Amino acid sequence: AHVGNLRAFLFYDLVRRHLRVSGYRVTHVMNLTDIDDRILDQAMHAGMTIDEYVKPYVEAFFEDMATLRAQRVEAYPRATEHIPEMVDMISTLIENGNAYIADGDVYFRITSFPKYGELSHLDRAGLKAGARVATDKYEKESVSDFALWKRSQPGDEGLGASWDAPFGKGRPGWHIECSAMSKRYLGETLDIHAGGVDLM
Q: What H or E segment, with its residue span, contains residue 10?
């Protein structure tokens, strides 16, 4: 990683240190995304499983963070280690009407959550068609609904990227990963959720 990539992680390290020095008890969890569309494409191109493809990047990340003297956090969960939690969470969302199955995929129905976008001051009426769902490939009720589970594609199983679920064999969508892992390690609530621009 270059310094631009690491800037965010160094900022989180600084916030964590400041909170601890200020007397707060901090539990910092940093997920390691080891499955997404880009990883699948690149692993397939390299002729590797996703585990084989991701391993050197994870090792390099930890080496870079150590070189920059960033403190280790309490947990580094990997998305692929928490598939059962994701499947359970998706099943609950389907049962409650917050998610639906379309062409083997499962999507979150944003109309089922009236407060969607309030925290980030998102104008739901003005959402651009396809702006946040460019990688979602199948039929859905609304262009703004996002993928929770993506059905298996040819080759996914050989990449180590396909799991059984009540709603069909597949893999998690990007958004459900953080939800399931944060609930597992931090409980129902958290104080600071940091990451990419998608969290705004």
A: helix 3-21
Amino acid making up residue 185: Y
SS3 state of residue 81: helix
pLDDT tens figures, 171-185: 999 889 989 999 999
Q: Domains along the chain? A: 3-190 (3.40.50.620)
Find out whether 148 and 106 touch, Cβ atoms under 8 Å.
yes
d(CA 48, CA 159): 7
Q: Which residues, 6+ apart, have CB-to-CB distance to 89 below 8 Å?
A: 176, 179, 180, 183
Rounded (10°) angle between helices 83-95 and 174-186: 100
Mutual angle of helices 37-46 and 50-67, in 10-degree steps: 110
| Residue in the block written with tokens 């200020």 | 22
Provide the residue type at 65 as one letter.
M
CA atoms within 13 A on the CB side of 67: 10
Which residue positions in the chain have pLDDT lower than 70?
1-2, 124-138, 196-200
